[in-house]
């Protein structure tokens, strides 16, 4: 091969390599993703036979597993401020700190009770790690899907029923749909999920980490569980919890001007006060509690807040407005672009910086 051809080939290879690098850089994330799963009911019914790590992997397999950099797994039969923190969260925090994974920033992606675990981490990880001689994690934000950080009234009902304080046919039906018929005692994180208990766990973290909320409002379990939840709900947690409201009241929307189905209309029963640094972004009545973190479900979603600052970057969705009907039947809706063709998880992943 002569020099001219060698030069041409080298230029081509360098150009192709640069194009591949640019393509990868355009789709890779600035921040590493750490997953924190929600309640694993099977671990309550089969404590001795639970494989916590394998359960954690299975939990996210529909969408998030292959897109995340790390997971924090925890057993449902333990308590948040007890062995979940000491035996599961703490060793993982040390491992992540040693690996320098979060040096450039990490995002916690949580589902359900993982929201509560994340709040306890945000409140304590800096002190825990510094006191042990480790570098604290640079957690720039959390993305909380169907967050249960405000607790769930179903946990109040479950603990009461399983300890013999209250029981009737409606309670029996709700608990069978939510927990299954094999649960015979109130153990572990069920106590932490009681509304008053949940709201007392690390309620005011010193770290001002933005907590971005993604709220479901769809029905599951034939609507049986919703009768025990305050206001609108996703069949497991009520809007006061998933929106991040500062109080456990009956709310219909996270936004005072947009309904959960996207309709632009004044919402008299909307959340009007939020826990510090809590920002509800996405809302949808197309998803129930256990659908929003998976890939199979699709359906229109809307926004509550948009364009939230995360570590000097802007996180937001492209939206469009749609009008239906005329005259007295005229209605206006606002949707997130591509939400009718992509799952909620895909939409959320795409806006992580």
Automatic annotation (TrEMBL):
Leader sequence segment: 1-28
Superkingdom classification of source: Bacteria
Lineage: Bacteria, Pseudomonadati, Pseudomonadota, Gammaproteobacteria, Alteromonadales
Record-given protein name: Uncharacterized protein
Alphabetical UniProt keywords: Signal
Naturally occurring in which organism (per UniProt): Pseudoalteromonas carrageenovora IAM 12662
